Amino acid sequence: MFRISTLPLIALLLAACGTDLEPKGNGQKEPEPGESRITHVETGDGTLTTTVDATHAESWVFLDLDAAREVDEAAGTWELAFQRMHIIGNGASGVVTAWVEGKEIGAVPDEAQFRADPVDRDQAQAEGVFQTTDPDDPTGAGAWYAYNLGTHSLKPRERVYFVKSDEGRLFALIFLDYYDDAGTSGYTKFKWSEVVP
User: Which segments within 59-149 are labelled E, that is strand?
Assistant: First the structure.
């Protein structure tokens, strides 16, 4: 009886998957002082389309939804932080998040569905609202994205995320892409707006 080990195959798959998620070219460049890694485009329908340059493998980009701008982590006023495919909410500041399936902003989830990401960043990456699985799982099961093993690409799931800010305002976000026009990964793009009851 012959036994074929699956370990080399699994290692090969993980290695192949990891290459497309890692920064390419100058993706390791830190921003210059005062240079924002967040850009907004008004869409004319009351929403903003935002692109976050989260290409750096170690730095986080912190977004204050209330002010619609990048902030320093120490300010503590951020709602969401981005690093490559990782997104976390600021559970330490009372930010809570929920999501519903679909591509259109409809009814807001009930209060019981909202939850805060863990304060510990590593734990938030593994168990948070945006990444409800082991971050080393290449399929991204439960994450804000789905990973295609055939094309080694990441695609946002059809979900609407609702984020209650540290100021008590409610925002709805729909993720659109993870790649820029040149195909470089780490450029998280989403449309969003405030939800006013």
Answer: 61-64, 69-71, 80-83, 86-89, 96-101, 145-148
